[in-house]
Structure formats: structure tokens, C-alpha cells
Amino acid sequence: MRTPHAPRIVAVTVTYNPDLPALEHLLKALSPQVVEIIVIDNGSSNKPAIMTTGASFANCRCFWLGSNTGIANAFNRGIIEARELGASHIALFDQDSLPEREMIDKLYAATTELSRRGIKVAGVGARFVDDRMGNPPPFICIRNLRLYRHDCRQGSIVPVDYLISSGSLISEHVLSVVGGMNTDLFIDYVDIEWGLRAKGKGYQSFGVCDATMKHALGSEPLALLGYKLPVRSPLRHYYMFRNAVWLYRQSWVPLMWKLVDGYRLMARYVVYSMFAKPRVQHMKLMSRGVWNGCRGKMGKYG
User: Fold this and answer.
1) Measured over all CA atoms, what is the biggest interatomic distance in the chain, rounded to whole angstroms?
2) 54-75: pLDDT as tens digits
3) Domain end point (choices 187, 215, 243)
4) What torsion do the CA atoms of 236, 158, 261, 280 make, to the nearest 10 degrees?
């Protein structure tokens, strides 16, 4: 429960043709945890139903962008609206996330404790669970040319290179210093780019193990050799590969991070080309993404 002296935390969630019951569950979970909820819709076809769902919560405001402008632009618009409401901290959410009770309080407690120690905190994020994937994915960082996976023990707050945007809590001050999301990326690697940019400015991101939420990562996972791998649409894979290659070309991104993530990207290319259906479409759009990333063609696909 929030206290009268709690910070002014505003939640921003981005929607695009959302599943309405899932959206209602998200807003119901967020409503008692934050001062205001801002819904930014990216041109959904079910706008009237979204408006009706949002209107059932007294502290929810809905805004319409008219067309799909990308998640980066939608988050930036939500951040602007949150600032207008005097937000001290902004919590970002996708439409397919569901925070547990007191998740926001736990995130805020973590960022307060870290700041008290003199640490420059970029943002803090929740541990998410995708029921289709089995075990919850751990918080990760790159060390000595290896991907290091943190053990998430009770009470742990662990340093990470970046956080997924959904379920993250960022102070308005840090956003003013680091800047908003990169709209050229449109979708995918938006949170990674922001986290690395913040780290380059001396701010560290942290995962909070006790703060949990449910989150669907991609569509139905691909089962392969005893592992379950998240699979997105061919178009999402276009953005993933294009934006990754673009990021590798940036001088401010650490070389170690480029090498490790680049190796993982090549492995994904092989796996998705061979096993993700429709295979030809996945391979075609991933290849186009690599080409456009190399020549810096950014923005919306098309």
C-alpha cells in the first residue's frame, strides 16, 4: 500500500490491438499501485473498447496516436504526459504484462536504497515470468566475453546491462539526463539501447528479484533440444536484426557487448531460419534487417 508520503509514480502502458481482458487485468493490478495510469494507444482498431476499459478506472487516462508510431515514440509520449502530471518516477509497461501486488513499491524501495548508497541508478526492473517458457529468465549482464546469468535469490538486487522496458521504474530526473527512447528503432532493442546509453553516462540498471510480474515474450515459443526459445513474427525479427546491427555500429557501445550479443544474434539467425515457420519469410526479413542496419535505414518498415 502506498503511504501519504509516497513518491508520485505514474505508470505508462502502450497498447496496440490489445486483448481486452488482459488489458483490464493489467489496469486493475496497476491502479492501486500508482497515482495515475497513462495508456498510449498506437492506432488500435478496437479504440472504443480500449476507451471503455480505461474509463472504468478513475486514475486512468487514455491518449490516441492515430497510427502505429512504434513503441519508442509511444513511450516518449507517455513520459511527456507523466511529466505534465508531476511524476517523480515513471513505470513502463507493455500490454501483455501483469505486475504482482506491491511490485511498484518493491521497485521504488530498491531504487531508494541504491540511491542512498550513492549509486547512480538508471532504472530498476521486475523479474518477469513467462508461463509458457518454464523457469523465469534470469537477469543478465556481459562479463569477460560471456553472458553472465544472475541467480535471483530472495532480497537480491543485481546489476544488469539493461532491463526490458516493461516492468521498469525510472526517475524523471534520470530520463531528463539520459533522454527518452530512440524513436528511430521503432520497436525491439529500444530498452537495450536506452540501458546501454544510460550506462555510458554513468548510470547503472538493476534487477529486483523480489519484484515480480507475468509477461508474455513473443508468440508461442519454439521447443528445440530441450530448450524453449522465444519466437516473434518475421516482421519483429526484421526490427530485432536491423536494430542490433545498427547498435553494433555505434562507437559508444562497448566492444565486449557487441561481440557477445553479435554471437547470439548469429545463432538466432541460424535457428529461426531453420526452425521458425514460415522459414523463408523469417530468413528474408532477418536478412533485410541486417542489410538495412548496415546502411542505417531506420524507422518504420516499408
Assistant:
1) 57
2) 999 999 999 999 899 999 999 9
3) 215
4) -30
In three-state secondary structure terms, 181 is: coil
Q: Does 1 fall in a domain?
A: no
- Beta strand segments in 102-203, E: 121-129, 140-143, 146-149, 157-160, 168-171
List, as own/partner pairs, every contact residues 114-122 make where C-beta atoms lie below 8 angstroms and the sequence separation is at least 24, other chains included. Answer: 114/157, 114/206, 119/204, 120/202, 120/203, 120/204, 121/171, 121/174, 121/203, 121/204, 121/205, 121/206, 122/170, 122/174, 122/178, 122/195, 122/198, 122/199, 122/203, 122/204, 122/205
Structural domain boundaries, residue 50? 9-215
pLDDT in tens, 122-168: 999 999 887 766 656 678 888 888 888 888 888 899 999 999 999 99
- Answer whether 0.70 is exceeded by the pTM: yes
Q: How does pLDDT run across 94-119, given as a tens digit for each residue?
A: 999 999 999 999 999 999 999 999 99
Return all residues near 55 (Cβ < 8 A) that are at least 6 apart: 62
Cβ contacts of 210 within 8 Å, gap of 6 or more: 106, 154, 155, 156
Question: Residue 67's domain is classified under what CATH number?
Answer: 3.90.550.10
- On whether both 290 and 175 belong to a single domain, the answer is no
Each residue of 79-88: pLDDT tens digit?
Answer: 999 999 999 9
Q: Is the pLDDT of residue 298 over 60?
A: yes
